[in-house]
Design a protein that fits this description.
Shape of chain A: globular
CATH class of the largest domain in chain A: Alpha Beta
Shape of chain B: globular
Number of domains of chain A: 2
CATH superfamily of chain B: Aconitase, domain 4
Structural class of chain A: alpha/beta
Number of domains of chain B: 1
CATH topology of chain B: Aconitase, domain 4
Helix content of chain B: 25-40%
CATH architecture of chain B: Alpha-Beta Barrel
Low-confidence stretches of chain A: none
Distance between the termini of chain B: 27 Å
CATH superfamily of the largest domain in chain A: Aconitase, domain 3
Low-confidence stretches of chain B: none
Largest sheet of chain B: 7 strands, mixed
Oligomer: heterodimer
Distance between the termini of chain A: 47 Å
CATH architecture of the largest domain in chain A: 2-Layer Sandwich
Strand order of the largest sheet of chain B: 4-3-2-1-5-6-7
CATH class of chain B: Alpha Beta
Structural class of chain B: alpha/beta
Order of helices and strands of chain B: EHHHEHEHEHEEEH
Chain lengths: 422, 167
């Protein structure tokens, strides 16, 4: 069995599972945020009206809450949603509620690893599609909607179809102008936005083994854009040292069997990948950054669970240090802890002196929610994960998805720029 | 629910994502009536006023990709859309539609997409897994629901399945 099959077998109390099996799986952790939370609360209250008794979530210690999409409160409705959420977590006895303006908080998928909310071998479901991110820790992590999360909160389990696994091997040594973002954009470009629909995407190969956790998280984060049910990387020494720095919790890692079967194995050599950009209006619509160097841009956005982890900010700062941006540039660290580190390590100063704005952690404009959304015809280079029509604002705005290195280089030139060319 | 009959709204493109079905700025809204006003706004701002209760959508493959927002099937269901026909669906949209009992995501064969036209009257015969085109007098196969999905549809949503399946 693959690691995904073994985690699901463990969670469902089965000896053996094969792709296509449908099982009810015990869930270890559940997360909701300020968009999915109020939706889930609404479903639960409607079920109560229909006679389903619900006093408390099945296990308040396994549930955690993030405020990320509409913080700082974008308007009255957003503020009310956050109040609703706070009242609910208090009633439910949920202690891990990361609140805006009250210590550590940030984008849910970033907190999941920064705060070690999820551990290797666990089954983690959450009310957000980019839940796949957390699979980089060696957990089964998948996004669900309100109804499924409400059911899970009631019963501590959910139905899942065991996915086939596509194994993606990445070999070679990563040059310093390249990032995991370039690799995952290339992969999505090759397999398409439904290339892994209903499947698991597992990453291996020496380039992945040598990759830091921040970079691995970029790979799993964007498996969602290929339609994958989950993205996963087998835990190793990198995983252990990352987690040991953040938690004393013990865990039992699960690894795939050596004779595990994959529906497909795709191998990449890093020599054949270069800084890559996804053009509007699909993450699969890729080109080499150098092929797009005539494209003038209005704005650069360095933010989100995909592209504002600490190493993403370090990469952007490496390019921006001592230089000035030519177009509007926003940097929004993905969590308060990363923001603090960016201040301590001098990165925030680099951004500010370059002329960029450094804003609070939020999903913000990544999902077109608020704070820096795009105007009609505005062109943005963004370290985020989606560029569908209207994703970051006006339906006729244009987003080019890129690595933090490409985004920072583009900010300096005001055109899409390969980091080797600055 | 044994059959659904309605008029077709055709969106002849693949990968219709949930940002188009209900843009991110409306995610703070949880009132179905408000959400419905903005359904499909990213592709057709007039959609909400064109639709009548009982209508059916016909779309290209990978319908509902992107964000997990349950707002998407909620908005479409509130407009009265009973079913969506497409060669394939993104997994979270599919689950949300079934588990929340908002509407039926029905998988069709790729060529059926070109056979059915906008405004055709179709009848989905669930027990027989076929789709009848009453306008063109044709019929097409639909992919039967997997066993558990069929049970959830029958029960009227995941909540009504309680304790049927103990894992």
């Amino acid at each position: 069995m693959t690691i995904t099959e073994k985690i699901l077998a463990h969670g469902s109390g089965k000896q053996q599972l094969v792709p296509g099996d449908v099982v009810f799986v015990k869930v270890d952790k559940v997360m909701v945020h300020d968009v999915s939370g109020p939706g889930v609360i609404k479903v639960l209250s409607e079920w109560e009206k229909r006679g389903k008794k619900f006093d408390h979530v099945w296990d308040a210690d396994r549930v955690w809450v993030a405020e990320d999409h509409f913080v700082p409160a974008a308007d009255k409705v957003s503020a009310e949603n956050i109040m609703t959420l706070s009242k609910w977590t208090e009633e439910q006895g949920i202690k891990k509620h990361f609140k805006y303006g009250l210590g550590q908080y940030g984008i849910c998928h970033t907190l999941s690893h920064e705060e070690a909310m999820v551990l290797p071998g666990e089954v983690y479901v959450a009310g957000d599609s980019h839940t796949n991110t957390t699979g980089a820790l060696g957990a089964f992590a998948a996004g669900l909607g309100h109804t499924d999360i409400a059911y899970t909160l009631m019963n501590g389990k959910i139905w899942l179809k065991v996915p086939e696994t596509i194994l993606i091997r990445i070999e070679g040594t990563k040059p310093d102008y390249m990032m995991a973002k370039d690799m995952i954009l290339r992969i999505i470009g090759d397999i398409g936005t439904d290339g892994a629909n209903y499947k698991a995407m597992q990453f291996s190969g020496n380039a992945v083994r040598e990759m830091s956790m921040d970079e691995r998280l970029t790979l799993t984060n964007m498996t969602t854009e290929a339609g994958a049910k989950n993205g996963i990387i087998e835990p190793d020494a990198v995983t252990d040292s990352y987690l040991h720095a953040r938690t004393t919790a013990r865990y039992e890692p699960i690894l795939g069997d050596t004779d595990a079967e994959f529906s497909e194995t795709i191998t990449y050599e890093l020599d054949n990948i270069e800084p890559t950009v996804a053009k509007p209006f699909s993450p699969a619509n890729i080109s080499a950054a150098r092929e797009l160097q005539e494209i003038e841009i209005d704005k650069v956005y360095i933010g989100s669970c995909t592209g504002a982890k600490f190493e993403d900010l370090q990469a952007a700062a490496r390019i921006l240090k001592g230089r000035k941006v030519k177009v509007r540039t926003e940097v929004l660290p993905a969590a308060q802890s990363i923001y603090v580190k960016a201040v301590k390590d001098g990165l925030a100063r680099v951004f500010l002196e370059a002329g960029a704005v450094v804003g609070p952690p939020t999903c913000g404009a990544c999902c077109g929610a608020h704070m820096g959304v795009l105007a009609k015809d505005e062109v943005c280079v963004s370290t985020t994960n989606r560029n569908f029509p209207g994703r970051m604002g006006h339906v006729e705005s244009k987003t080019y998805l890129a690595s933090p290195l490409v985004a920072a280089a583009s900010a300096l030139k005001g055109k899409i720029t390969d980091p080797r060319d600055v | 629910m044994s059959s659904i009959r309605g008029r077709v709204h055709k969106f002849d493109r693949s990968n219709i994502d949930t940002d188009v079905i209900i843009p991110g700025q409306y995610l703070k809204i949880h009132d179905p009536i408000e959400l419905a006003k903005h359904a499909m706004e990213g592709l057709d701002p007039e959609f909400a006023v064109k639709v009548s209760a009982g209508d059916i959508m016909l779309c290209g493959k990978n319908f509902g990709c992107g964000s997990s927002r349950e707002h998407a099937p909620i908005a479409l269901s509130q407009l009265g859309i009973k079913a969506i026909l497409a060669p394939s669906f993104a997994r979270i949209f599919y689950r949300n539609a079934i588990d929340g009992a908002y509407l039926l995501p029905i998988e069709i064969e790729e060529p059926t997409l070109t056979r059915i036209s906008n405004n055709d009257e179709v009848k989905i015969d669930l027990p027989r897994n076929i789709i009848l085109n009453l306008t063109k007098n044709e019929s097409y196969k639909m992919k039967p629901f997997p066993e558990l999905v069929a049970k959830i549809v029958q029960a009227g949503g995941l909540i009504n399945l309680n304790n049927v399946e103990e894992g």
